[in-house]
């Protein structure tokens, strides 16, 4: 065991009596079991403040020649074993009078520490070997082993997620959006071809399309009837990936993949159409569901043209537009169809009109463009709003005449707005110079200047003595021309006489001052604010009247212009609000979102669940409830790197596309569809569910064969003071209750002993029970007052005593009283006859308390909460100490675990845990430090450093980021995560970066940007003993003082 002494403590050795020294004394006492402060201080002084040397100094003789009893216990054999703990407790007597046994305990403690260190080294070597073989974890192996298979069971009819098998989140987003269309789902699941056609199929592409359709059928069947929480799309993806020349591990362009997927589906359905009729694409169900037509009309060089085209996913530009309607308007009208001034007969431009809209209308938002200067693609992060209901009447050919009239009206109104804006700008940017200001403000400034009066300043006597006497002419500046002439004459004389005369007869100070031009007024006499020197009442009245009238007139003109612009904008906004143009509503069904940059990122989908009437977020294996507000935040763009790239609308009048007419309940829809499946697909679902049960059974058998790791607890270390209570209290639950409560009593032993010492008079005069009664009530009163005190940044009273924690959290009176009575029944209070007598009376009264008097289950929970509170406090303090010593990797583990444990406490009440903002602040600081460290190692290009940087990212940063995002995230945490992500995204496409590093970066970024697909299982940091009786309060004070000295932090 090693400990680093802070700089201020190291300089003074153990002589310092500050909080750091006290903290070292507490640790030394905890390790060695020695409670004598003078003994500990002497050892620390002899070791010059080094904790390790102090421990060696105290145990050197015993470690060299360990006692027979201590050697008989092998730490590796009994570590984590309750039996081993009990055997050590029976062998060694912990009485202060037995020095040999004390030394044996110390030696045994050191052996335990050495065993822990050996295990830690072995684990570190194993991790290093594992990391050498792989640089990226599997998705379910973050900070722990695979979770229980039971945790992956599906709940009722809740939609299932989809496994990401390596940069395949785009497939999940697209397939989930299509699957949630009941009509499309039925088409896929009912797809079949005659056996003769299957046998006669010769084309390679046809065979591939049929195979893909069959795999999609199996996938859809599982998504309907599986008992798993998510499905594996590997078989379908392998076929789809085979059509691309790029490597499997690289993320495909989602638009290209979606087009390819729809083409394959269209070709596969065309085969089934050709069976019963001649080849006709209009009969293809995919064409009927997803494809529409539009008419393009225009004039080119005086020649009119017209053509009809088919579209599937309609592309829309994002740049330069604020909302979806503006995008559509820009796409439908390319240049105005107007005559050129030179030739009134020649017109240019074109318009598009939808002649047939598909039931499922998909808009592809172009959020990527190629940057010619950089030579690489870039993502467009502009904000683009879109509605939940969009009316397509204004883009239909059937509405052409009325829409053209409204577009002409809109064009004229926009011209009026442009003219009004120019007029308004002349008022708001007034002036002829480079700097221009609003005209009303300028008039107001002139009025303020004219209204400012010069203050009447009466010089003081001291100022009169310091200022030289001046004549009236000098004060008024009448002598200024004369002074200027004198200066010119002096300069002329000096030029004629030459430099030699100046050196021989240097001018005096008074002569030099007289040559300088004299101001009309001294600076001391200048007014503090600019003001007119002379202004008459008549002038002031005239100026004020004119300026105020002009300003009012100008303000009225500006307001009239603004009101006019507002009215015109409202007219434009209501231009298409005519009920005639609201006959073709399309409702938003799905939003496909991309987060990241052009070269890499993460995809997920928001899909409206019609039976449940709310939005769901489909993020790989995770399917969670969402809201329109969350969808807006993630999809509109402009705020962060996430934005929508595809919008899927459905005709709101075709309800059968999104839900069955008889499906009124939220559940049961999928089960009904499973019952209608062909027998082959039903059997496939049953086989997969049977395999799930087999996997669960095998996993449980594997777990039962493992030897559980039992955390050393205080149960075997503390004596059971209620062992005489009879067999009714010997159950495991009661044993656990007595263990925690007795441990908390042992923590407060010194305070209880002081309370007993204060009852000497009552004990002598009135007997034992009177003394117990007085000690009980005095101690209760003291703790009650402490609980009411306002905590300070350096002091948390809850660490002092369990009852302060109970009182601050309004624990039941029975729990408080029994806990305090157990304080006086602690066997460790056997100091003298009075203490022993009071302890025995208290133990007798404890026996009188029955189950009807105190709810023991509730009693246990309160003590468990206090134990967890102290545990969180120690985790926090340990993390802060490690952070101060720049051990950021170790610190992050403690801080993350402290935050997670503290969150469960705070759910029960605001005073149940520690300050959440303090943990979050230093967790955030650790993350940023580690991210900088990992990034610096990554770009160093040295193989070992690159591997270390990737490991830091995979093992610490990414899991912690996902934990933060999957909980209620604060703005500070969100900003920090954006900073870290942007740091890594900035390396994309760097010319000076090695191609191998770019490939590794492409593997890392999807996990870095994927916020919720991974299952986080926290690995608990090294074991601690939060119930140790040493003074945790002094350690808290020292750490708080330290962080206050290094960071501008306020601890509530």
TrEMBL record:
Its EC number is 3.4.19.12. GO terms for cellular component: nucleus. Gene3D superfamilies: 6.10.250.1720, Cysteine proteinases, DNA helicase RuvA subunit, C-terminal domain. Residues 695-735 are annotated as: Disordered. GO terms for biological process: proteasome-mediated ubiquitin-dependent protein catabolic process; protein deubiquitination; regulation of proteasomal protein catabolic process. Residues 160-652 form the USP domain. Residues 712-732 have a biased composition (Polar residues). The keyword Hydrolase applies. Keywords: Hydrolase, Isopeptide bond, Nucleus, Protease, Thiol protease, Ubl conjugation, Ubl conjugation pathway. The keyword Hydrolase applies. This is ubiquitinyl hydrolase 1. It comes from Chelydra serpentina (Snapping turtle).
């Amino acid at each position: 065991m090693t400990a680093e002494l802070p700089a201020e403590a190291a300089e003074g050795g153990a002589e310092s009596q500050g909080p750091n020294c006290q903290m070292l004394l507490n640790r030394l006492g905890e390790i060695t079991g020695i409670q004598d402060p003078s003994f500990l201080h002497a050892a620390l002084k002899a070791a010059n403040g080094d904790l390790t040397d102090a421990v060696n100094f105290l145990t050197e003789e015993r470690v060299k020649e360990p006692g027979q009893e201590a050697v008989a216990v092998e730490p590796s054999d009994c570590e984590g074993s309750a039996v081993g703990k009990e055997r050590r407790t029976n062998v060694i007597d912990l009485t202060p009078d037995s020095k040999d046994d004390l030394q044996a305990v110390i030696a045994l403690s050191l052996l335990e520490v050495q065993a822990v260190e050996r295990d830690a080294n072995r684990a570190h070597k194993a991790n290093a070997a594992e990391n050498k073989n792989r640089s990226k974890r599997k998705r379910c192996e973050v900070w722990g082993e695979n979770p229980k298979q039971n945790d992956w069971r599906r709940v009722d009819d809740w939609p299932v997620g989809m496994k990401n098998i390596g940069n395949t989140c785009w497939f999940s987003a697209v397939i989930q959006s299509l699957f949630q269309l009941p009509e499309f789902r039925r088409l896929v699941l009912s797809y079949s071809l005659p056996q003769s056609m299957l046998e006669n199929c010769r084309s390679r592409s046809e065979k591939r399309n049929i195979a893909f359709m069959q795999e999609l059928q199996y996938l859809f069947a599982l998504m309907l009837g599986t008992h798993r929480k998510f499905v594996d799309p590997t078989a379908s993806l392998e076929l789809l990936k085979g059509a691309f020349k790029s490597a499997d591990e690289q993320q495909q362009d989602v638009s290209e993949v979606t087009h390819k997927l729809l083409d394959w589906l269209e070709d596969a359905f065309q085969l089934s159409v050709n069976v019963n009729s001649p080849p006709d694409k209009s009969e293809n169900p995919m064409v009927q569901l997803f494809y529409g037509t539009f008419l393009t009309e225009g004039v080119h060089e005086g020649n009119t043209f017209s053509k009809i085209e088919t579209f599937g996913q309609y592309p829309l530009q994002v740049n330069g537009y604020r909302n979806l309607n503006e995008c559509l308007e820009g796409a439908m009208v390319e240049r105005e169809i107007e005559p050129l001034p030179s030739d009134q007969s020649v017109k240019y431009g074109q318009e598009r009109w939808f002649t047939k809209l598909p039931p499922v209308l998909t808009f592809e938002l172009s959020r990527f463009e190629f940057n010619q200067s950089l030579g690489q693609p870039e993502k467009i992060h502009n904000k683009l709003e879109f509605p939940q209901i969009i009316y397509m009447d204004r883009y239909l050919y059937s509405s052409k005449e009325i829409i053209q009239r409204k577009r002409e009206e809109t064009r004229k109104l926009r011209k009026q707005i442009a003219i009004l804006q120019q007029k308004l700008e002349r008022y708001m940017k007034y002036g002829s110079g480079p700097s221009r200001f609003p005209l009303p403000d300028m008039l107001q400034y002139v009025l303020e200047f004219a209204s400012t009066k010069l203050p009447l300043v009466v010089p003081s006597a001291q100022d009169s003595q310091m200022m030289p006497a001046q004549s009236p002419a000098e004060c008024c500046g009448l002598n200024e021309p004369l002074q200027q002439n004198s200066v010119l004459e002096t300069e002329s004389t000096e030029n004629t006489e030459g430099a030699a005369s100046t050196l021989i007869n240097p001018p005096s100070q008074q002569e030099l001052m007289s040559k300088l031009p004299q101001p009309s007024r001294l600076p001391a006499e200048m007014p503090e604010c600019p003001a007119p020197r002379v202004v008459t009442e008549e002038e002031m009245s005239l100026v004020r009247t004119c300026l105020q009238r002009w300003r009012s007139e100008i303000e009225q003109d500006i307001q009239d212009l603004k009101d006019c612009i507002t009215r015109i904008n409202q007219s434009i906004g209501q231009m298409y609000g005519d009920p005639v143009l609201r006959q073709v509503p399309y409702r938003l069904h799905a939003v496909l979102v991309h987060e990241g940059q052009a070269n890499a990122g993460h995809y997920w989908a928001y899909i409206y669940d019609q039976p449940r009437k709310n939005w769901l977020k489909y993020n790989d294996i995770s399917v969670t409830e969402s809201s329109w507000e969350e969808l807006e935040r993630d999809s509109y763009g402009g705020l962060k790197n996430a934005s929508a790239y595809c919008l899927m609308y459905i005709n709101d009048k075709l309800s059968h596309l999104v839900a069955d007419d008889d499906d009124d309940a939220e559940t049961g829809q999928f089960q009904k569809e499973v019952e209608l499946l062909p027998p082959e697909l039903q059997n496939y679902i049953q086989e997969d569910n049977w395999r799930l049960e087999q996997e669960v059974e095998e996993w449980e058998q594997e777990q039962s064969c493992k030897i559980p790791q039992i955390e050393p607890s205080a149960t075997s270390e503390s004596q059971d003071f209620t062992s005489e209570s009879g067999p009714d209290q010997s159950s495991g639950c009661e044993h656990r209750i007595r263990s925690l409560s007795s441990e908390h009593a042992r923590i407060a032993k010194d305070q209880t002993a002081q309370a007993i010492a204060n009852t000497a008079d009552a004990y002598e005069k009135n007997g034992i029970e009177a003394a117990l009664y007085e000690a009980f009530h005095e101690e209760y009163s003291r703790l009650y007052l402490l609980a009411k005190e306002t905590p300070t940044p350096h002091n948390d009273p809850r660490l002092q005593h369990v009852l302060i924690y109970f009182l601050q959290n309004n624990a039941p009176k029975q729990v408080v009283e029994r806990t305090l009575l157990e304080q006086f029944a602690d066997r460790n209070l056997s100091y003298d006859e009075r203490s022993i007598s009071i302890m025995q009376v208290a133990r007798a009264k404890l026996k009188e308390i029955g189950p009807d008097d105190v709810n023991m289950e509730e009693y246990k929970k309160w003590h468990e909460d206090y134990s967890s509170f102290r545990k969180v406090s120690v985790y926090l303090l340990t993390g802060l100490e490690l952070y101060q010593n720049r051990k950021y990797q170790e610190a992050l583990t403690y801080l993350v675990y402290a935050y997670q444990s503290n969150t469960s406490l705070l759910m029960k009440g605001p005073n149940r845990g520690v300050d959440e903002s303090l943990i979050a602040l230093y967790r955030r600081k650790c993350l940023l430090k580690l991210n900088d460290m990992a990034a610096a190692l990554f770009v160093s290009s040295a193989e070992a450093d690159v591997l270390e940087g990737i490991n830091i990212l995979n093992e610490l940063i990414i899991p912690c980021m996902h934990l933060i995002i999957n909980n209620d995230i604060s703005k500070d945490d969100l900003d920090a995560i954006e900073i870290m992500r942007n740091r890594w995204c900035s390396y994309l496409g760097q010319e000076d970066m090695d191609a191998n590093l770019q490939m590794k970066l492409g593997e890392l970024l999807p996990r870095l940007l994927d916020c919720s697909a991974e299952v986080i299982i926290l690995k608990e940091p090294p074991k601690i003993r939060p119930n140790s009786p040493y003074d945790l309060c002094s350690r808290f004070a020292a750490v708080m003082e330290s962080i206050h000295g290094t960071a501008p932090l306020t601890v509530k």
